[in-house]
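My hope is that you will study the protein record below before we discuss the fold together.
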Amino acid sequence: MFSALIYVGFTYLFIKPQGSSEVRVAEMAGTIAEIITPIPENGLGEIAFVAQGGRMTYSARHNHNGKIDRGTPVRILRVVGGIAYVEPIVE
């Protein structure tokens, strides 16, 4: 009986509160990011964004195969095969 209480106590206090620092791909859609490596026409670049309190970087491609210059704010539309598909934010 005592060991069962200890087990439940440790599970509740130490295991349940642990979170993951991994960013879920499904949660990235709609996130605002910035181009840190320019995306050439029909090519790959790199974006940076803040997720779970830390700066993350990800490979990116323009949603319509266009080019996007460094420093341009973009919105992540979807992530497929480890590549974020983005579009520039038009204000």
Q: What stands out?
A: The radius of gyration is 19 Å. Residues 2-15 form the longest helix (14 residues).
